[in-house]
Amino acid sequence: MTYFKVFSIIWCIAMIGIKLLIHLIPGKWNEFQLNEVYTEEQPK
After folding, report:
1. In this predicted structure, what is the pLDDT of residue 43?
2. What is the pLDDT of residues 1-44, one digit of tens each?
């Protein structure tokens, strides 16, 4: 397998896993996004 095939398989598994998390635990996912990803502080 080439580098790009391996990368695309890993990327696909990660994206499917994230979609499952969004649908299985929407409250915790929303809390994670609001508190960790989108902070009120500006990046330094």
Report:
1. 67
2. 799 999 999 999 999 999 998 899 988 888 888 888 777 776 67
| Residue type, position 14, single letter | A
Tell which residue, 30, 34, 14, has the closest CA to residue 22.
30
Q: Using the CB atoms, write b or e for 23-41: b if 16+ within 10 Å.
A: eeeeeeeeeeeeeeeeeee
Q: What is the 3-state secondary structure (H, E, C) of 14-29?
A: HHHHHHHHHHHCHHHH
Question: In this structure, are residues 32 and 40 in contact, taking their beta carbons and an 8 Å threshold?
Answer: no
Enter the pTM of the model. Answer: 0.62
CB distance 29 to 22 below 8 Å: yes
